[in-house]
Write a structure and sequence with these properties.
With 274 residues, the protein is an all-alpha fold. It contains 8 helices and 2 strands; from the N terminus they run H-H-E-E-H-H-H-H-H-H. The protein has a two-stranded antiparallel sheet. Helix 3 packs across helix 6, helix 5 crosses helix 6 and helix 5 packs parallel to helix 7. The radius of gyration is 21 Å and the shape is globular.
């Protein structure tokens, strides 16, 4: 009896659902690009506009131009991008829980973020009783720490949801490995604080891209859960539909928040403090 030839897989774009999702996301992206401020920094501003207050006095500047995200949010999304990249280098499919000592240090970073954020918030009120004078460098430091915490939580969760062959070992398996990440985050903080335009420009774009990356990862996971297709993937190309859908949902959230805020304020600028 002759064996049937193997069925040849269709190219990704030939699947109807892929084409529909890709078309919808392409139209959404085109509409967002056309209706947001011009230039790369203008698009980055529009991303930051959706998730950050962008208060002028609480932001760093590229010359006389405010960065797309405030000091705290800049640190958070830069820290998250650094943490994700660091763990991917250590083991792109690793999804185990880091040891308790690492989690304890990460929890301290999260607590510092909350304390500094609350202290900064109370300083907005005339009769506010803050613990210490808020500073942008502190906002940057605690924001970066929170970004590291987010990456430590999101990286294994994403791998456990997506991959069929995820590895049970943690990417950050020792406190020493985590200290290496903290050392890199300190270097990142110093690069921002240098206020060198040649450094701030790409860092500003990376921080704004971090918003879309984190949201896309979360929405990709939700897409897989809703469609009951978790743990089915072995290669990145197989993730075409979930990744595009995740990005599309992330961009939709940004676009809706952009529209809502612009309707309320009538400007793409952040808030101004006297």
């Amino acid at each position: 009896m002759a064996m049937e030839p193997p069925v040849k897989a269709l190219p990704l774009w030939r699947y109807p659902w892929n084409r529909i999702v890709l078309l919808a996301v392409s139209l959404l992206l085109l509409g967002w690009l056309v209706n947001t401020p011009a230039g790369l920094l203008g698009k980055a501003d529009a991303v930051g506009y959706a998730v950050c207050h962008r208060i002028d006095l609480r932001s760093f500047y590229l010359g006389d131009r405010q960065l797309p995200l405030c000091a705290r949010c800049s640190g958070m999304y830069l820290g998250a991008m650094l943490g994700l990249a660091y763990q991917a280098v250590l083991g792109s499919r690793r999804a185990g829980t880091p040891p308790k000592r690492v989690l304890a240090v990460a929890a301290v970073l999260g607590l510092a973020f909350v304390v500094d954020g609350a202290n900064s918030l109370t300083s907005l009120f005339p009769q506010g009783a803050w613990l210490y004078e808020p500073q942008n460098w502190l906002r940057l430091v605690t924001g970066t720490g929170m970004g590291i915490l987010i990456s430590v939580a999101l990286f294994p969760a994403f791998n456990q949801t997506v991959w069929k062959n995820w590895e049970p070992q943690p990417a950050i398996s020792t406190l020493k490995t985590f200290i290496g990440l903290l050392a890199l985050s300190l270097l990142l903080i110093l690069l921002v604080l240098s206020e060198n335009p040649l450094l701030l420009y790409p860092l500003a774009l990376i921080s704004a891209a971090g918003v879309l990356v984190l949201l896309s990862m979360v929405y990709c996971m939700l897409w897989l859960m809703v469609t009951r297709s978790e743990n089915r993937y072995l290669k990145i190309p197989e993730l075409f539909l979930p990744l595009v859908a995740g990005f599309g949902l992330a961009l939709m959230q940004v676009a809706l928040l952009d529209v809502g805020r612009f309707m309320l304020t009538g400007t793409w600028d952040g808030f101004h403090l006297g």
